[in-house]
Amino acid sequence: MAVGIFDSGLGGLTVLGAIEKRLPQVPLVYFGDNAHAPYGVRTADDIYDLTTQATERLFDAGCDLVILACNTASAAALRRMQEGWVPKGKRVLGVFVPLIEALTERHWGDNSPPREVGVKHVALFATPATVRSRAFQRELAFRAIGVDVEAQACGGVVDAIEEGDLILAEALVRSHVDALKRKMPEPDAAILGCTHYPLMEEIFQDALGDNVRVFSQASLVAESLADYLDRRPEMVGPGTESLFLTTGNPRNVSNRATQFLRRKIEFIPA
């Protein structure tokens, strides 16, 4: 009864931690493509190829449902995967859905015409590839009107977090927020469009100011998954063992993951 979680690196561990708290009975198989991280600077075709390879490995591990806990993969590969690659009886879900549900205050299954929502000015912080894809703006436009989205590509932040250099990560976050505010001085809300970014949520909030509501993904994804499995319990796969898989150096990745989750994590080769 395992569920797969994929990320290009360690950022998806923020999602895994939230899902573990919300669904402690569900074994989780995590795949970190650390050897090829970060994805944010790769081409769409490259991201698609790497994401499908990782997802196939999670299917092999007994996961019928895989969450792309990577905004870059969700933006650049998910739609293409769902339209022509995902095998019958399997599901691959992204992490934009819960964010847009929360932002627009409407259920994903609500197919009524787009309508005005409470927020008018939204700051989107994401990787360069996610920003280039405009996937967030496209999905938001299906559900809301009158929302101005200003995107800021946060180059370097994922690399700094993956290397454990949180001092550099903080400096980069503050620089990117300053750049965003020069384009949109007074956002109503901010989207942290990368699963690495919740680790820097307090820094984003401090740099943006208390009057800006910051939407972070981990808890939203966990709650959305719980609702999905209530409605589709057959999508819990046959796997019974929790695993941590990586394409990188297992010892190095395990050490950094242990720091991320503040408990012992042992990765094995994918």
UniProtKB/TrEMBL annotation:
Known EC number: 5.1.1.3
InterPro entries membership: Asp/Glu/hydantoin_racemase, Asp/Glu_race, Asp/Glu_racemase_AS_1, Glu_race
Molecular function, one GO term: glutamate racemase activity
Pathway(s) it belongs to: Cell wall biogenesis; peptidoglycan biosynthesis
GO biological process: cell wall organization; peptidoglycan biosynthetic process; regulation of cell shape
Keywords: Cell shape, Cell wall biogenesis/degradation, Isomerase, Peptidoglycan synthesis
Keyword Cytoplasm: no
Binding site for substrate: 7-8, 39-40, 71-72, 195-196
SUPFAM superfamilies according to UniProt: Aspartate/glutamate racemase (SSF53681)
Source organism, top-level taxon: Bacteria
Active site residues according to the UniProt entry: 70 (proton donor/acceptor), 194 (proton donor/acceptor)
Protein name: Glutamate racemase
Gene that encodes it: murI
